[in-house]
Amino acid sequence: MPRGNMANSSSGSNNGSSSSDSDSGAAASSGGGVESRPAVTVQLLQKLRGICARSAPWLWALWLLVVLALVYGLREPLMLVTLFLNTLTPKFFVALTGTSSLISGLILIFEWWYFRRYGTSFIEQMSVSHLRPLIGAAESSSPTPGFAFSSGDTEPSSQNLSAECKVWRNPLSLFRGAEYNRYTWVTGKQPLTYYDMNLSAQDHQTFFTCDTDCLRPSDAVMQKVWRERSPPARIKAAYHALELRNDCPTAYVLLAEEEATTISEAEKLLKQALKAGETAYKKSQQQRPQHETQHRRDTDVMLYIKRRLAMCARKLGRIREAAKLMRDIMKEFPLLSMLNIHENLLEALLQLQAYADVQAILAKYDDISLPKSAAICYTAALLKARAVSDRFSPETASKRGLSTAEMNAVEAIHRAVEFNPHVPKYLLEMKSLILPPEHILKRGDSEAVAYVFFHLQHWKRVEGALNLLYCTWEGTFRIIPYPLEKGHLFYPYPSCTETADRELLPAFHEVSVYPKKELPFFIHFTAGLCSFTAMLALLTHQFPELMGVVVKAFFGTLFAPFGFVVEKIESFMSSGLWHQLT
């Protein structure tokens, strides 16, 4: 609820309740003892916490004195323990150190496996999950009565988190039947995850359905089709919808996406869908006031079909035709820039090497008020690198320094790498590439895969561009030493990209993680403990007498301060004082 409405409603409730204050006074006075008990308990707990915080240094000092007194009183039993340790054989120490090494090695293996799979330490996670609530239970107590948090205070943070992890439709997504399924037939691997396909099903229900579908049998069938998981069942239902009405555009769309095994077949089905969609669009446009939702649905269907037809023309080599279709779509639907049709046009124009037109599109969409993408940032870097990359030499640049044009190109590369640091390894072919998913996470590995899959050829075509990228891209990380805390040109890098990318990308792909996570402390600790105890076991087994001397010297040095303190205490105290006290 907006804050103004919340304020009005709260003031209204206060005015309405003022007349009943006299009636509720008796009830409040009679039940006040019961209702105020939680508040009194909270106040008492806060006072106790304050007292404990003020007296903490004195309590620690008292505890230290108690420990010293106990050690002094139990000095004779401790001497017996020392005698017992002296009587132990080297075999016992070999068994002890060997067992310790084995246990710490098992913990190390488990910690390493857990970290590789989940990206965190198991021991740290258990400590945070179980120990922190016990330590901070009092701090997380409920607020005092009369003080309330407004819901508007938490809205910005939740909106920022949802915006960081928002998944977008891939503007260059492939055809399932003609491309994704062919990859599965050849390799036997599934390029799409269930999560990705589920998001596509939700998109199709949003684009291709409306409230009036139940009035038309064919649209009612297609409304159920988009919820169907089995591809053969969807294709069969699409044919059933065409039997009910032979000009059902969404049925042709589904067959083009999932049944067509080549791009040419998909284009033919999409042309039939376009013809049927134009008829439905004109009909709903005439009845627009009464059927607004149906007209909006028909508009979405037309936009989708025209865009996929332009992509078919691009894939079949008719690039100028594809660029013209995309420009027509952007003119016909200017308010739908959120669908990122300009990224399709950028890729087609780069293939035509129409760099002036590419620069014009970047000048329009590379704006601070518009959401960025890897295609925008890296295409801008490519154009600036194109001006200097053919004569760029790192040796020459180190001697004479960078020129103004070279500095602009390097800054553009740093800007692009800051936005999405996963792209350079794919462009430089340091990491294997896979088919792009149907949805991407901006600034994530999924967006990097989708961008490089189509734009790697454009970088290779510009002479020296990849060399310039290779020489300069790692300098970005020196500008941003702590990317999760503070950014340079963009917001800090979101910490949720790894989890979302693992859902979007197939399991056989090694997800790129940024920034690289350092090994947890407990992995270092268990590794050191395992190697140290193993070394002790080996040395004790090989040199038992020498290790016995080393152990006695170690414990003698360790307990020397304790013996010195005991001697000083005995020199100041009479010999029978302890017996008199006990």
Automatic annotation (TrEMBL):
Keywords: Membrane, Transmembrane, Transmembrane helix. Pfam families: ST7. CDD domains: ST7. Its main location: membrane. It is found in: Membrane. Residues 1-29 have a biased composition (Low complexity). The chain crosses the membrane at residues 56-74, 94-115, 521-540, 546-566. It comes from the Eukaryota. One of its GO terms (cellular component) is membrane. Residues 1-34 are annotated as: Disordered. Belongs to the ST7 family. This is Suppressor of tumorigenicity 7 protein-like. It comes from Microcaecilia unicolor. The lineage of its organism: Eukaryota, Metazoa, Chordata, Craniata, Vertebrata.
